[in-house]
Amino acid sequence: MVLICLLTLAATVTSTIASINEAEFAPEDIITKDVAIIGGGASGTYAAVRLREDLNTNIVVIEEKDRLGGHVNTYVDPISNISIDYGVEAYLRYGDTAAFFTRFHVPITPYTQSPQTSVYVSTTSGSNLTSYTAPSLEAQIGAIATWLNLTEKYANITLPGLWNFPAGSNIPSELLLPFGEFAQRHGIEAAAPIFTVVSNVGIGGIEKVLTLYVLFAFGIPVTQEFLNSSLFVPANLSNSVLYDRAYNLLRDDVILQSRVTIGERSANGVKLVIQSKNSTSKKLIKAKRMLFTPPPSVRNLEPFGLTGNETAALSTFTGTWSFAAVARIPAIPAGYSVYFYAPDATLDNYLGIRDWPWTLSITTAPKIPPEEHLFEILFAANYSLSHADAKRIITTAVQNLTISGTFASNSTNATIDFVAFQDHNSILWRQPASELRAGIVQDVYALQGQHSTWYTGGLWSEDYTGNVWAFTDSVLPRLIASLHSNGTR
């Protein structure tokens, strides 16, 4: 497997972590639990509820932010008092997703999009892409239906997650084709714009991404529900309400605004020193198992003292830099969605819309009075950049809209006022076909359970809430079984 050839290199970067002296902690600062959950996003919150309420397991959740919910971001406009969900917008009914909302008495309703006028502009100039016309709705639906017919046979090796994914020559060859070749072979190029808008896949060029990774981004459940129009949202409530109610339930077992500074892991359990952001106080958590829910990058796991095989497997992932925001933009009329596409995008080159190092969409915030000019922004790049860098690029893009006269009849005021801004940075499966054949998927999944550490979250499944919860439900029985297997319960 690919793991073997990386071990020598990995050994040179394995973390060295200071040992934890339990005697340095007062008894009241030592917390003993069955499972320590790192991260209180969608997967961490769901796992905490399932473990504590349904599986009779003592838990503690350690979350760096001041709330649960992760990428569920809600901005409440102080003028209209209307909530804008600018992180997660809608939910799949896949698995038990709807039931989890019912559990917290959150009513749901079908997701509908506000009608908006779409404008396609060049990433370089902000001017209208006169050579580009979006595919018709009929063409897009037809292409997506064909995509489903072509891919649903792979449900057994991709859902929930990659537990059963093959290696070597057993990997279906068409999944290792560049998506551009796959799309042209089957005549589904018209699906590319929807794939990029919904899943944000293909920054730098979707045609170069392996078909397998496009399937990870726009997989079987989201394709089915997109075609059936069965997505849902909370009825007359923000998406954050679910996590507010989950926090009220879990409050006594959640530690907010804290992070792990030192971790020790062994086959017998974990010890974690956590530091509060608001004080110098530290606590020691002793747990039989740890469930890690953020992106499992080498950097995120550094405090836990990675071993050579862990570093070797996890260092193969590719970083992604993504940002979600709400901004006041007078230069764009209300009721418009602006999509910044690569300048070479043309009527017959739907696959080329993302042939650029970054992507940006600016859409009118729903239900907000038009005179407020509030817009939701999604920005992502295939290279490292800070919040300030992202804001600078977005600001320049808005200025270019005015300079180029894209909205000539509207305000010449090219200012942009960011009222909410969050990063959604993560890591992606982008290993080449050779590494997939060599067994990198199996190497990564072999980390599940090692050193009392289990994993869930967006990397391990399609990165939609329903998929993440379904994958979590496949991890939890394994975690519970490991607690019983060596007599720790």
CATH architecture of the largest domain: Alpha-Beta Complex
* Broad shape: globular
What fraction, in percent, of the residue positions are helical?
Answer: 25-40%
List low-confidence stretches: 1-16
Number of domains: 2
- CATH fold-level assignment of the largest domain: Polyamine Oxidase, Chain A, domain 2
Average pLDDT, to the nearest integer? 94
Distance between the termini: 34 Å
Count of helix runs: 15
The secondary structure category is: alpha/beta
Largest sheet: 7 strands, mixed
Work out the strand percent: 15-25%
- Total beta-strand segments: 18
Radius of gyration: 23 Å
What is the class of the largest domain in the CATH system?
Alpha Beta
Organism: Rhizodiscina lignyota
Protein name: Amine oxidase
Keywords: Signal
InterPro entries: FAD/NAD-bd_sf
